[in-house]
From TrEMBL:
Annotated signal peptide: 1-19
Organism: Salinimicrobium gaetbulicola
Keywords from the named record: Glycoprotein, Ion channel, Ion transport, Membrane, Receptor, Signal, Transmembrane, Transmembrane helix, Transport
Cellular localisation: Membrane
Entry's transmembrane regions: 133-158, 202-223
UniProt keyword annotation of Membrane present: yes
Transport among keywords: yes
InterPro entries to which the protein is assigned, alphabetical: Ionotropic_Glu_rcpt, Iontro_rcpt_C, Solute-binding_3/MltF_N
Membrane topology: Multi-pass membrane protein
UniProt domain Solute-binding protein family 3/N-terminal: residue ranges: 29-351
Name this protein carries in UniProt: Transporter substrate-binding domain-containing protein
Length: 352
């Protein structure tokens, strides 16, 4: 009787042991938060597709867990959902930042990107015309005219008495010196005027050699001022954005970057809305993730209207996102790293 009683006690504790709880926990369906971020997460007819979705499918081939997607309308609400543990994780392309690491946990990066700047392409004809009246162009012309005048005036000083037939006295003679200087600089060589005194020829000799150097440098300066992308219009650093009206996606890493440098920006809920602001001329620049901007521009055939500046602002690392202290991170992270080394993943990268 005592043995039967002991067997009943062992059976009771076996049914309620932690191992049984672990089995139930492992069978729990995962809830994965997503929001649209093409080409990484795209939603069509209630189904999800994209590079991030495909990466998760590869990971789950080894994990073999049941899951469901929970859709969020924008990035801000998705990040709040992860932080509040409304979902078990998010596979969206979320950039790892210092501020986010204080609130959430991240896997190893599965994609390296950049924060880019998009702007309107504008009319090339209008750009050329506007550069014609720019200070760069005008200043180059004024410098050129000034140097021509100086050497023409010097020659006139020497020639006005010794060679009055070609370099008369007074304002008319000064103009004749200017004409000679311009003709000499351009190597036209009409021969209608030429210095005959030693001083005049000495000045002319200096001017001939100096003009070769000046005409090449000034030509380059004028050409630069007429270039469609003027050097003063380029954005070389984040601080240069302060001179423009800027828009960015709310709660994105690009938005955090702008806030870090105290650059005011218009907040939009997604990249499509930001690009619409550019098209409608409601902002000058749109700052966001380069692959997402490039994909939307290509899909909507906006290459003639919008362009992405070649210089990026920073490098971004996309990772899976987990609530702070999630035990799933240690389970999923090594599988994700193994997946990134496979041929299937490299094929996916090429396809997208």
């Amino acid at each position: 009787m005592k043995q039967v009683f002991l067997l009943l006690i062992v059976a009771f504790f076996s049914l309620n042991s932690p191992a049984q709880d672990t089995t139930k926990a492992s069978a729990k369906k995962l809830v994965i938060g997503v929001t649209e971020a093409p080409p990484f997460v795209m939603r069509k007819n209630g189904n999800f597709d994209g590079l991030s979705i495909s990466s998760w499918n590869l990971v789950n081939e080894k994990l073999g867990v049941e899951y469901e997607f929970k859709y969020y309308p924008d990035l801000n609400s998705l990040l709040k959902g992860v932080e509040k543990k409304e979902v078990d994780l998010s596979i969206n392309p979320i950039t790892v930042t210092d501020l986010r690491m204080e609130r959430m946990d991240f896997s190893q990066p599965y994609f390296i990107s950049h924060t880019a700047v998009a702007r309107r392409s504008g009319s090339k004809i209008w750009t050329y015309l506007s550069n014609l009246i720019s200070w760069n162009f005008i200043s180059a012309i004024l410098i050129l005219v000034g140097v021509i005048f100086i050497f023409g005036f010097l020659v006139w000083i020497f020639e006005r008495k010794a060679n009055p037939d070609e370099f008369e006295g007074g304002p008319k003679g000064i103009f004749q010196g200017f004409w000679w200087s311009a003709v000499t600089m351009t190597t036209v060589g009409y021969g209608d005027k030429s210095p005959r005194t030693f001083g005049g020829r000495f000045v002319g000799l200096i001017w001939m050699f100096l003009a070769i150097i000046m005409i090449s440098s000034l030509t380059a300066g004028i050409a630069s001022s007429l270039t469609v992308q003027n050097i003063h219009d380029e954005i070389n650093s984040i601080k240069d954005l302060d001179r423009f009206e800027v828009a960015s996606v709310e709660s994105s890493s690009a938005h955090e970057l702008l806030q870090q440098y105290d650059i005011k920006s218009k907040n939009v809920i997604n990249a499509e809305q930001g690009l619409d602001l550019l098209i409608n001329e409601e902002t000058n620049l749109f700052v966001y993730d380069q692959p997402i901007i490039a994909h939307i521009i290509e899909q909507k055939e906006l290459q003639e209207e919008l362009e992405i500046l070649p210089k990026t602002l920073k490098k971004d690392y996309y990772s899976y996102t987990f609530p702070k202290g999630s035990k799933l991170l240690k389970k999923i992270d090594p599988v994700l790293m193994g997946t990134l080394k496979t041929m299937e993943w490299n094929t996916l990268i090429e396809d997208y």
